[in-house]
Each structure stands twice: as C-alpha cells, then as structure tokens.
C-alpha cells in the first residue's frame, strides 16, 4: 500500500472516531509498525499546516486525535453550540494538581495532603471529565484510585504527564511551609 493511501486511511479513521485512537490500533489498521504510523501522522500534521487547513492532529500520550485548530474556535461557535466551560476554583486546581502529580491516588491521600475534605472537589473534577476512577487500591476497604484523563491533557495543552512542569525542592518546601501556616491558622479559629 502506498503512503498516500495509508494517510487517507488514517485520516478517515481519526475523523470518524472523533476521539483519540492509540498508535498501536492505527498500526494494526494499516498493517504497519508504530514507527511508520508516527511518521505518517507527522507528515499529515505538516500537510495540514502547509495547506492552512482548519484541522490538526493532536497527540495525547500514545494516541492521536483529529481536531479543529484553536484559531477556528470563534467561527465554530457561530454555528455550533458553545462548549460548556467550567470554572476551576483554587480548591479544584489544588486538588487537580495533587491528582496529576501523585496519581493514582485515593481520596484519603488527597485529604491528607490538603488537610481538609476533598469530596466536593473530587466529584466536580470527575463531573468535568478531568479526573476519573482508574482502579482500586489493594488495601482494606479497597478505596478508589483517581487519575487524570485525556480531557485533562487536552484542556491543559500537554501531550503527556511528562510535560507537566517539575517542582523544585525550594518550591516544595515553600508549599509545605504555606500549608503548615494555613493549618495553624485554621486551628486557631
């Protein structure tokens, strides 16, 4: 099969699926290895850019998704329903950060880090599709484990968790000091 035909097949699959598809599954469809599929997808992305096309390919960990370029959003909302926007409060962002950096993690572990109940925050983040249940801990009571989702990656514009910024030892110590100060203020009330 020639490269143009393979790219056409990949394009059709990604367009039709409407969500991300693992490279391994794409490789099986065109009966090629994963390296070749990645090369084809890189070529397709470059062709979309060259043609000033409204579509692009987004990489999410070991998957790809066909999507509309961000700069086309203002035109899309003229015809399509405006997507639901969610507001991430400081509490939600803090909880989301803990999940992103410590996943998989239980509610109890989140609460231990935050020092307060996290039920509402976890429920809202699940509702927004930014985190999800990823399994159960092998411990008494088998508590649920939470992790981030592809929607999290999409929303924050990162391909994988490895792209999240690393915290320096100084920042971690500053955060610990702030948390201790906040905890002592709450105890005084």
Topology, number of strands: 5
The portion of residues assigned to helices is 40-55%
Multimerization status: single chain
User: With helices defined by DSSP (H or I, 4 residues minimum), what is the helix count?
Assistant: 9
- Unreliable spans are none
Shape: elongated
How much beta, percentage-wise? 5-15%
Mean pLDDT: 85
* Class of secondary structure makeup: alpha+beta
The H/E string reads: HEHHEEHHHHEEHH
Strand order of the largest sheet: 1-3-2
Estimated radius of gyration: 21 Å
Major β-sheet, in short?
A: 3 strands, antiparallel
Query: Whole-Å distance between the termini?
Result: 72 Å
Care to give the gist of this entry?
By secondary structure, the protein is an alpha+beta fold. The protein has nine helices and five strands; from the N terminus they run αβααββααααββαα.
Describe this structure in words.
It is a single chain. The strands form 2 sheets. The chain has a 3-stranded antiparallel β-sheet with strand order 1-3-2, sandwiched between helices. Strands 4-5 form a two-stranded antiparallel ribbon. The N and C termini lie far apart (about 70 Å). By secondary structure, it is of the alpha+beta class. The chain is elongated and about 65 Å long. The chain has helices at about 5-15, 25-30, 35-50, 75, 90-100, 105-115, 120-125, 150-155, 170-189, and strands spanning about 20, 55-60, 65-70, 130-135, 145-150. The longest helix is centred in the last third of the chain and has 20 residues, at about 170-189. Helix 2 packs across helix 3 (about 35-50) and helix 5 (about 90-100) packs across helix 7 (about 120-125). About 15% of the residues are buried. The protein is built from 9 helices and 5 strands; from the N terminus they run H-E-H-H-E-E-H-H-H-H-E-E-H-H. The model has no long low-confidence stretch (mean pLDDT about 85). The protein is about 55% helix and about 15% strand.
């Amino acid at each position: 099969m020639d490269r143009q035909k393979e790219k056409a097949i990949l394009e059709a699959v990604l367009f039709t699926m409407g969500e991300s598809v693992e490279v391994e599954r794409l490789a099986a469809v065109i009966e090629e290895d994963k390296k070749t599929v990645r090369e084809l997808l890189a070529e397709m992305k470059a062709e979309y850019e060259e043609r000033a096309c409204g579509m692009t390919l987004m990489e999410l960990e070991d998957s790809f998704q066909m999507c509309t370029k961000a700069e086309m959003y203002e035109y899309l909302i003229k015809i399509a329903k405006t997507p639901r926007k969610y507001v991430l409060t400081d509490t939600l962002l803090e909880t989301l950060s803990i999940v992103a950096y410590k996943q998989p993690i239980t509610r109890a572990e989140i609460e231990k880090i935050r020092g307060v109940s996290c039920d509402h925050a976890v429920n809202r983040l699940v509702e927004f599709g930014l985190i999800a249940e990823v399994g159960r801990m092998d411990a008494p009571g088998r508590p649920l484990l939470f992790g981030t989702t592809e929607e999290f990656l999409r929303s924050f514009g990162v391909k994988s968790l490895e792209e999240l910024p690393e915290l320096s030892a100084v920042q971690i110590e500053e955060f610990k000091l702030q948390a201790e100060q906040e905890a002592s203020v709450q105890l005084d009330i």
